[in-house]
Each structure stands twice: as C-alpha cells, then as structure tokens.
Design goal:
Helices cover 0% and strands 47% of the residues. The protein has a six-stranded antiparallel β-barrel. The chain is globular and about 30 Å long. This is PilZ domain-containing protein.
C-alpha cells in the first residue's frame, strides 16, 4: 500500500522489522466473509502491516478485510499474531486495495 493511502500518523515513526510504524489510534472495521462487522482500533500501521485493538471475545479467521471508515479504503489482511486484545496483521494486497 502506498504511504499516501495510510491513515494519518499521530506521532513520529517507530522502527520495526516490517518498516516504520506510525501510531494512529483510528477507528477501523474488520469485515468477515459472513457479513459480520467488528469494530476495532488501528493502533499503529506501516506499509506492510498493522496492530489492531479488538476485543478478545471475537474469533478472527486467518485472513479478512479491514475497512478504514471515511477513507473509502478496504484492504485484505492476514492475521500474523494475537495477544489478548491485540492482533497483528500483514497487508496482503499492497498494490491493489479492495474498494467497496
């Protein structure tokens, strides 16, 4: 995903293995194939992935769509890890975001 498509960063980037991560603290929505929509918080994001805050009661599949309200942008992501109320995801289609 090109940097200009990323939600605005709230702070300076944090150095990580997958590239610079920007703290965002923006609302996003997880879209599941069965039509379920799960609200989440986009905690930080880089050009290759993101950290989401989502209630641990939600069972997430290996891959799903992530929508950024107000930006007309939806991307496919793959769950990389989960720790309590946090989920790490990898962006799958960085060149062609899914627009709904």
């Amino acid at each position: 995903m090109p940097p200009e498509d990323l939600p605005e960063a709230a702070t300076r980037p944090e150095k990580r293995k997958g590239g610079d991560r920007h703290t965002t603290m923006k609302l996003a929505t997880i879209l599941l194939q069965d039509g379920e929509q799960i609200p989440c918080v986009l905690r930080d994001m880089s050009v290759s992935g993101a950290k989401l805050g989502v209630a641990r009661r939600h069972v997430l599949p290996e891959s799903f769509a992530l929508n950024f309200p107000g930006r007309d942008l939806t991307c496919r992501v793959r769950r990389a890890w989960r720790r309590g109320d946090f989920v790490g995801v990898t962006l799958l289609d960085e060149n062609e975001p899914v627009r709904e």
